[in-house]
Amino acid sequence: MGAIDTKEAVASTETGSGPGAAGRPYFTLRYKHGVDAQGRVQFPSRWKGRASGTTLVAVLREMTVAVPSKANPSISDRRALRYVEVMPSGMFEEHYEEVMRACSNESARQAARRRFSWRMVELDFDGAGRFSLPEELKGPAELKGTAWLVGCVHKFQIWSPEHLECADADDAHVLAKENLDW
After folding, report:
1. What pTM did the predictor assign?
2. In the CATH scheme, what is the code of domain 24-177?
3. Which helix (H) or strand (E) holds 172?
């Protein structure tokens, strides 16, 4: 139902211990696509074959970044950025099970299930290779007009241009602290 159906001749995985190992598709590069009024986004053609036959799950995520204060640029304000993370269903299930194991009691597990259920959706693709994001994901991530699909090796993220710009600046700062100049 939610799996990508394509006849494009691109290898779905690589062998060995690299990014596509263990039967997982891999996603690289960045793609800028429009988001129409129905929340439809074009899936990059380069990724279609790689994810062929794979059910993808989209989850609303949030990260907090330091951004220079508008009032005083030498001071950083903290800002929450929301984005949508998309991963193969098997990877989502692994993550979900980790969260369930981390919960100390049944009340916590029930609360976690409720949080997961309203923040995730299995992606369905139309004949044109587009998927639709429901308002519950699209709205909080501020995805309107334009979206960036950012490959993250074994999953990808969907960002609004403004949020991605802030995340990129934060990434550069974090990597510089680690002496990693990417």
Report:
1. 0.81
2. 3.40.1550.20
3. helix 161-177
